[in-house]
Amino acid sequence: MKPTKNRVFCPECGRAKMLFQTEKKAEGFIRFNGDDIPMPEGCTLRTYYCRACGGWHITHKKYRPNYGQFTEGVIEHYRAMMGLRQVERERRRQQRELALMAKAERMAS
Ligand SMILES: [Zn+2]
């Protein structure tokens, strides 16, 4: 029987997929339900870790070395944005410091 409660939208795949917390649970699903899942001729089910979902999916597709590129792109973009924010925060902090120093000099003279 196919569980429906553990389906999530996977941003890496761009569609709903079953998500398992552990590899063991995903393998268990294959063991108990693998025969009932329609598949192209000559394919076998396998588990794989999805970084986007933080868990395990199952697929009949072969290993693709470029799997995860979309998620890697999102993470890279996020890191770049956080880096820019850090630079901007530092710039504002320096400006505040300079303004305070200028104010202190004006008061002293
Ligand atoms: Zn996923």
What can you tell me about this protein's structure?
The protein has 109 residues and is an alpha+beta fold. It has a domain of 53 residues. It has two helices and four strands; from the N terminus they run ββαββα. The strands form two sheets. A two-stranded antiparallel ribbon has the order 1-2. The chain is rod-shaped, with a radius of gyration of 25 Å. Bound molecules: zinc ion. Zinc ion (ZN) binds next to loops.
Biggest sheet, in brief?
2 strands, antiparallel
Number of helices: 2
Strand content: 15-25%
**Could you estimate the helical fraction of the residues in percent?**
40-55%
H/E element order: EEHEEH
Overall pLDDT score: 90
Instruction: State the low-pLDDT regions, or none.
Output: none
The order of strands across the largest sheet is 1-2
How far is the first residue's CA from the last residue's CA?
83 Å
Bound molecules: zinc ion
Overall shape: it is rod-shaped
Count of beta strands = 4
Category from helices, strands and their pairing = alpha+beta
User: What is the rounded Rg?
Assistant: 25 Å
